[in-house]
Each structure stands twice: as C-alpha cells, then as structure tokens.
C-alpha cells in the first residue's frame, strides 16, 4: 500500500470524499468532452446533496469540470474561474435511486456535444463512474480509460482488446453494456498506458465505432505526484 493510500490524497480540503472525489468525477466528465464546457447542471444525491456547500462539493465539481485536479488551489475560487471561462452552471438535489450516497449526475454541454455522466465518490478520494450518456459503465479514473461507443456485433470487444495488446497495453478491467441486441453498446476499458495516437485513430476509423474517448488517469495532480516521488 502506498503512503498516499494510508494518509489520503493530496488535495484542497476539507473532505477526501466530498471534495477530492467530487473533483475527480467532474474532471473525468471534462475529459469526455472534446471542447470546453459551456453549460453544466450538477444533480446531487444523498450525502452530496445534504453537505455540498459545507464540504466544498459544489466548488470541487465546478473546478473539476474546468480541468482542475483535487490539489489545485484554484478550487477555492472555482466559481470565479468558471465564470471567467464562460461556463454557466447550476445545482439541484434529487434522489438518483439505488446508488452510493455520494453520487452526482453531471449534465454538461459543449460546442456541438452534450454529456451525461453519473459518478460516485467512494471515500479516500476514490471514485467510480457508473453511467455515461445513458449506458452503464464501470471505471475509476485510476487508469487510462478507453470509452468506445459502437454497434453491438460479434468481435468488437476482441478487436479493441487486440489493438490495446498490439500497442503494448495491458487491460486492467473491461465492461460492456448495450441498449439492446444489435443496437448501440458502450465499452469502458481501463488500461495500464495510454494508447498511441495511431491506435486511437485506427479504432475511431472502424465503421462500427461511433464515439471514442481516451481519458487520462486522474488520481494524481501535480502536487500529489511530487509527494509520491
């Protein structure tokens, strides 16, 4: 177990679950969008809804969507940073069903693109994304993650896994969910390294792939990385 696993993440506090975790969920949402978000709605569930303001959850969510890591001092001024970047945002509280108490639904819009992402903060800064654009997903931000929206047909998972292996990547987890047989499906693949651009270009060019995102690992920002070294 690493030192940071024992003492918690390097972060702007006060809470690893309500601040650091919230920031990481929103940061993953930011990386799902190719361009800077212009509008965002954060729907808070359970404990997130009850203590959002006191624990800095609202600030952390906005900061993450602006691209900040949990150790970024700009989190304290996230609302001002967002307004300066032209991001309009709002918060709401709702019962999101049978999910972890620290859960948020992020609905964001960028130029020509929209995103819906449901994520939970599990404690100690650890997170899990559970849904992306209406599809079940399972990834944590602890690894580089490949999201592939594709037509549900035989061989797609094997093809993606083969490309990862050919590029020297090792799959940590893989999860796939489809809307219906023969419809659209979303694959989330956590790998030990980011794929090279030529591999991403190849996957994007496949006729049955309609949307692809390569998300970086978001568990360590600059200060945390320096502390770990």
List the helices and strands and how they pair.
Blueprint: H1 3-7, H2 16-32, E1 37-45, H3 46-51, H4 57-65, H5 78-84, E2 88-93, E3 103-110, E4 113-123, E5 126-132, E6 135-139, E7 144-151, H6 156-166, E8 171-178, E9 184-191, H7 197-205, E10 209-215, H8 222-228
Parallel strand pairs: 1-2
Antiparallel strand pairs: 1-3, 3-4, 4-5, 5-6, 7-9, 7-10, 8-9
Helix pairs in contact: 2-4, 4-5
Tell how many strands the DSSP assignment holds: 10
Q: How many structural domains can be distinguished in the coordinates?
A: 2
Euclidean distance between termini CA atoms? 15 Å
Low-confidence stretches: 1-15, 222-229
Helix content: 25-40%
CATH architecture of the largest domain: 2-Layer Sandwich
Largest sheet: 6 strands, mixed
Number of helices: 8
Structural class: alpha+beta
Rg on CA atoms, Å: 17 Å
Can you identify the CATH superfamily of the largest domain?
A: D-3-phosphoglycerate dehydrogenase, domain 3
Q: Kindly state the mean pLDDT as a whole number? A: 88
The third-level CATH topology of the largest domain is 60s Ribosomal Protein L30, Chain: A
SSE pattern? HHEHHHEEEEEEHEEHEH
> Approximately what portion of the residues adopt beta-strand conformation?
25-35%
What is the 3D shape? globular
Strand order of the largest sheet: 2-1-3-4-5-6
CATH class category label of the largest domain: Alpha Beta
């Amino acid at each position: 177990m690493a030192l940071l696993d024992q003492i918690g993440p390097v972060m702007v506090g006060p809470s690893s679950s309500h601040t650091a975790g919230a920031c990481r969920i929103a940061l993953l949402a930011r990386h799902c969008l190719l361009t800077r978000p212009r509008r965002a709605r954060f729907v808070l569930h359970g404990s997130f809804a009850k203590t959002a303001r006191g624990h800095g959850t609202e600030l952390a969510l906005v900061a993450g969507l602006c691209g900040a890591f949990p150790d970024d001092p700009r989190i304290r001024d996230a609302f001002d940073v967002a307004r300066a970047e032209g991001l309009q945002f709002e918060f709401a509280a709702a019962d999101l069903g049978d999910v972890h108490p620290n859960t948020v639904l992020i609905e964001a819009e960028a130029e020509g693109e929209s995103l819906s992402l449901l994520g939970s903060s599990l404690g100690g800064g650890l997170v899990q994304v559970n849904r992306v654009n209406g599809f079940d997903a399972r990834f944590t931000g602890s690894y580089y993650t490949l999201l592939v929206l594709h037509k549900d047909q035989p061989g797609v998972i094997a093809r993606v896994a083969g490309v990862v292996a050919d590029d020297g990547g090792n799959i940590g987890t893989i999860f796939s969910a489809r809307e219906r047989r023969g419809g659209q499906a979303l694959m989330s693949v956590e790998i030990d390294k980011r794929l090279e651009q030529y591999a991403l270009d190849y996957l994007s060019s496949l006729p049955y792939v309609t949307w692809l995102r390569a998300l970086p690992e978001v568990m360590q920002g600059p200060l945390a990385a320096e502390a770990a070294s």
